[in-house]
Amino acid sequence: MTTYEATVIRDGKWWMVSIPAIDGLTQARRLSEATDMAREYIAASQDIAIENVSVTLHFGPIGGLRNIEDRVATIVDERNRAAELERAASTQSTELARDLAAVNVPVRDIGAILGISHQRAHQLIATR
Predict the structure, then answer these.
(1) CA torsion sign, 74 to 77 to 81 to 86?
(2) What is the mean pLDDT of the chain?
(3) Which residue from 79, 2, 89 is spatially nearest to 46, judged by alpha carbons?
(4) Can you tell me the distance from the alpha carbon of 19 to that of 109, in angstroms, rounded to the nearest whole number?
(5) Which residues are within 8 A (CB) of 43 and not within 5 positions of it... i.e. 6 or more apart?
């Protein structure tokens, strides 16, 4: 499989897809179509099977906005960190709920302590 780099920019209602390695240019109405349009263009212009074409899409400036890929990477990193923190908080909540239940704190009060419903507190205690 051959991988090509392509860059997209917004031009009016269209996404222009530039493929520098073959000096190619195609367009797509929706961003979700850009990779497929690039693959089809490459396959047709280079006379290779589309199954053997892979495209890595990059963003050029869009409406004066730059560094889009860097900003997206930051968002993805922050989402991943948030998911890790959520998992850690969930683990700690479960441990504390079980510890409180072990010393006979009522489930409704465990919920109040953790800021969750008593039903959720019951679920935390019951899961193993």
Answers:
(1) positive
(2) 96
(3) 2
(4) 62
(5) 49, 50, 52, 53
Tens of pLDDT, residue by residue over 37-86, are: 999 999 999 999 999 999 999 999 998 899 999 999 999 999 999 999 99
Residue 107 · residue 121 · CB < 8 Å: yes
Residue 128 pLDDT exceeds 90: no
Instruction: Give the Cα-Cα-Cα angle 57, 61, 67 (nearest 5 degrees).
Output: 80
- What would the pLDDT profile of 102-113 be if each residue is shown by its tens digit? 999 999 999 999
State both tokens at 13.
């209602």
- CA nearest to 59, candidates 68, 50, 51: 68
Q: Backbone phi, then psi, for 52, in 5-degree steps?
A: -100, 10
